[in-house]
Design a protein that fits this description.
Layout: H1 19-40, H2 46-53, H3 57-74, H4 78-85, H5 87-106, H6 111-140, H7 145-173, H8 178-181, H9 183-197, H10 218-240, H11 247-269, H12 284-313, H13 319-327, H14 350-358, E1 369-374, H15 379-382, H16 385-393, E2 397-404, H17 419-423, H18 425-440, E3 443-449, H19 471-485, E4 489-492, H20 502-517, E5 535-539, H21 544-556, H22 563-568, E6 581-584, H23 589-598, H24 614-620, E7 623-631, H25 649-656
Parallel strand pairs: 1-2, 1-4, 2-3, 4-5
Antiparallel strand pairs: 5-7, 6-7
Helix pairs in contact: 1-6, 1-7, 1-9, 2-3, 2-18, 3-6, 3-10, 4-5, 5-6, 5-9, 7-13, 10-11, 12-13, 18-23, 19-20
């Protein structure tokens, strides 16, 4: 009997992979890595792009989906292009077209131009991967192709996940245009390496007669490309209008159905090879694999577009954090909403809880936290913004709670008074809020209520608005936020709201309610473990004294003062709380102004609050002022620090020696 022998002398002959082949594979991998990165890299920059180009979010989705649509339409043509022009020529032309499209995206001047240039990018990016794979298959041969592809597929696989992270870093440090412009030098380097590393196209190879070649399916391309594009437009219009019954939606979906049905009939009965051979779906394995790929792509790319917007607009995350949350799935800022002290859910009596709270002091190891409660987006930038920027720069955890989305607000900037802005005002104001939050260096949360609007006397408030909510119901999300964030200081408006807007007055009411209730275990059960803030302040921004002081300073220097008419019309109002605390923050007036300008729908540069000379303001009124309404710690009035009585002397010394932003 013959025994089977094992050993090196009978091992299968594995053809080695030369360094040149690996080098060529690495060059070919650069192309799809660039193209796949760009499918997701813009996801964290959509808000910034929309804000800079004044584009509606419904149009911004085409920045991402248009690119993917162009890729999907280009891929089926790659086989014909390689047979017609040669693999190396097509691949290098695709990379060059992608880089050119990237350069044009980086200098786009409008939403429409950016979408057009993204389509150009997609036309180049769509052929990079399939043509690159064909080059590797031919160079490696059947015996090595599996090992070569397995070695190079890992970085390509991770490219879509790395896109949001890289996009966040670029957006934070360089701006959204560099998400595209950085492709240009990488593309040029890739072309230079490809010219040396890729095998040339053979010009001496025998060509088949023209009637034996597979011609381009022109009719299929003419039916499929506009059919898919019209389908995407119709679905987008359905979400942006009154639904699927709207006339533009009906027409778009009807045209898409006709085109796609026409392509189906053409593909099933064509004698030549169609652009996409639908007869392959008769094979069960192919059908299942394609469906699985479709579902994976739908889950991946929809989440890459929607999830960053959620984190930036709802959770108040910055560009880098949103990218990490999307790309890595679980990375968060270490200080975000973290508990600082143990929950008081143990069986303690209310009196014990209150007594322990009264004796709290912040230690060196514990961060100080400050919560500012505002009614609408832009309030945080016009009232106490320099204070927030100062404390954030000093290492304090600062969180802004915005009660409403500003849905009933006006467009006060004439340059933004356009139909498309009014149509998408809610989304634009959320994007403006995200930009202002980032400028100030703070976190921000929406409480989810609907703006009540500033109505004429006698006009009823809209049903379901913030100002009509029962105080206990409206205060519950703020109580939950206080118990989760655990602020030591809360800032809000006084009883008048600062001015008689119903939402400002309601903000005062729920802030006082939440301050009193958050530390009481018997109130708001189910809203988290109790936490008692130590100090409650009211804003004293835009007081008559502030206007009068600036007016006098400007007129003394012979300057025109727009504050004279404001003072002349100043109402005879009831007495307001006197300032007790003056926070020096003149060094952060610039951050305040930039944050306010980020609310472009609400602020006209050079008008109103933006008109007075900042050097005069820094000289005559270098503080932002507050009234201390409640304090559970000992402090001396007047104060110059909202955290007086909370921070230890050692911590203050450390803070004073720390460089600020």
């Amino acid at each position: 009997m013959t025994q089977r022998r094992h050993g090196p002398d009978v091992a299968p002959n594995r053809e080695p992979i030369e360094r040149g082949l690996l080098r060529m594979g690495a060059v070919v991998a650069l192309g799809p890595i660039m193209a796949l990165l760009d499918t997701t890299i813009v996801s964290v920059g959509i808000d910034a792009i929309a804000r800079d180009l004044n584009g509606a979010m419904t149009s911004m989705q085409w920045v991402a989906s248009g690119y993917l649509l162009a890729i999907s339409m280009t891929m089926p043509v790659s086989g014909w292009a390689v047979a017609r022009f040669g693999a190396k020529t097509v691949w290098m032309a695709s990379v060059a077209l992608f880089a050119a499209g990237s350069a044009l995206c980086g200098v786009a001047w409008s939403t429409g131009s950016l979408i057009l240039f993204r389509l150009l990018q997609g036309l180049g990016g769509g052929m990079v991967q399939p043509v690159g794979q064909s080059i590797l298959v031919r160079a490696a041969g059947p015996s090595r192709v599996g090992r070569v592809m397995g070695t190079l597929v890992l970085p390509i696989t991770f490219a879509p996940a790395l896109g949001p992270v890289l996009g966040g870093v670029i957006l934070h440090g360089l701006g959204w245009r560099w998400m595209f412009l950085l492709n240009v030098p990488v593309g040029i380097a890739t072309l230079a390496l490809a010219a040396r590393s890729l095998p040339g196209d053979r010009t001496d190879a025998p060509r088949e007669p023209a009637d034996h070649r597979n011609p381009l399916d022109v009719l299929g391309l003419a039916l499929l490309a506009p059919g898919l594009g019209t389908l995407v437009y119709g679905l987008s219009a359905a979400g942006d209008s009154s639904g699927y019954g709207a006339v533009p939606t009906v027409w778009a979906l009807a045209a898409a159905t006709a085109l796609l049905v026409g392509y189906g009939a053409h593909a099933l009965h064509a004698r030549a090879t169609p652009l996409i051979d639908l007869r392959l779906f008769a094979h069960r394995g192919f059908c299942v694999a394609t469906a699985n790929s479709f579902l994976q792509g739908a889950a991946l790319y929809s989440s890459m577009f929607l999830v960053p917007r959620y984190y930036q607009q709802v959770e108040g995350a910055g560009a880098i954090e949103a990218g990490l949350l999307v790309g890595a799935g679980a990375v968060r800022h270490p200080h975000r909403l973290r508990p600082a002290l143990p929950h008081h859910d143990d069986p303690m009596t209310p009196s014990t809880t209150w007594r322990n709270t009264m004796n709290l002091r912040v230690t060196d190891a514990e961060p100080v936290r400050l919560l500012a409660v505002h009614a609408h987006p832009d309030d945080e930038s016009s009232k106490g913004a320099a204070t927030l920027a100062r404390y954030a720069a000093e290492g304090v955890d600062v969180l802004v709670a915005t009660c409403t989305g500003g849905e009933q607000g006006s467009v006060l900037n004439p340059r933004m008074d356009r139909p498309e802005v009014w149509k998408n005002l809610t989304q634009i104001r959320r994007a403006e809020m995200a930009a202002a939050r980032q400028i100030l260096g703070v976190d921000q949360r929406f409480l989810g209520f609907v703006d009540s609007g500033l109505l004429a006397d006698g006009e009823p408030l809209p049903e379901g608005c913030f100002a009509l909510q029962p105080v206990e119901d409206a205060a519950r999300p703020l109580v939950a936020l206080i118990r989760r964030f655990r602020p030591h200081v809360v800032i809000t408006y006084d009883e008048t709201g600062g001015y008689p807007h119903p939402d400002h007055i309601m903000t005062h009411r729920i802030s006082v309610e939440a301050f009193d209730a958050a530390g009481d275990p018997g109130r708001y059960p189910g809203a988290g473990g109790t936490w008692q803030p130590l100090k409650l302040y009211y804003h004293r921004a835009f007081s008559r004294q502030w206007f009068q002081t600036l007016h006098d300073a400007m007129t003394a220097e012979g300057l025109d003062s727009h504050m004279g008419p404001i003072l002349a019309d100043w109402p005879d109002a009831a007495s307001v709380p006197a300032p007790t605390t003056h926070v020096a923050c003149a060094a952060y007036f610039d951050a305040r102004d930039r944050a306010l300008r980020a609310h472009a729908t609400q602020v006209a540069p050079g008008e109103g609050f933006m008109a007075h000379p900042r050097e005069i303001e820094r000289r005559v009124w270098p503080t932002e002022d507050y009234h201390l309404a409640r304090s559970l710690v000992e402090t001396a009035i007047p104060e110059n620090d909202l955290l007086a009585g909370i921070r230890t002397d050692h911590e203050k010394a450390c803070r004073m020696g720390r460089p600020t932003r």
